[in-house]
Amino acid sequence: MARRAFTITAAALTATTALLLTGCGGDDSSDDIKGADAGSSSASASAAASTPAGVERPEITIPSSFKLTFADWKSDDPEKQAVLDDGREQLRAGYAAIIENDLDSEALAFYDTKAGLSQDQEWIRSYTDKNLTVVGELPVYDPEAELFGENTKAQLRYCTDESEARTKHRKTGKETGNPPGTEPNVAYTVTMTKNAQGVWQTVSTTSERGGCS
């Protein structure tokens, strides 16, 4: 179920990110941060606070059936905080698209570059092609942001814990978690770039199951 388990390149990563789904049609996926539902308003407020003046951010809603929790998603550096905020919202947008069965998510397009969106659409298809959605809880923790290129490029790293996350078949209602013995913690590395509006967009993502300390 990991959004992107196995150290792979962005493209592979989206394909392998079938949330907590090593055996159900994917192998990678992650989303929100601290309680999808409750986190919705607080996450949106945080994102709004870091949004450059004049930029209208998309509203992202995740149902209470899938709780994404972002622990300690804070930085004392405002530039790094902006990276954390946009990286979080991009992840929330991806899971919202899976839940809504929406390959053409405007929110995801807002937080992705063209290349990043293409890869994430492959990730979303790994669910929608199997008529799956996501349920349960997916904590996202240990965030670390690094800035490069005069603060125009960044790398965001974080971990997810898939222990309580599952996929659910939309028609039968059958829920499936990772196969027994699967390492539940997955480390992600996200490459990002700042666009002309000042929004940090995802270019690619790689992951490594068991790569968290």
From TrEMBL:
PROSITE patterns: PROKAR_LIPOPROTEIN. Keywords: Signal. Residues 1-20 form the signal peptide. It comes from the Bacteria. Residues 35-56, 162-185 are annotated as: Disordered. The keyword Signal applies. The keyword Signal applies. Residues 36-54 have a biased composition (Low complexity). This is Lipoprotein. It comes from Streptomyces thermodiastaticus.
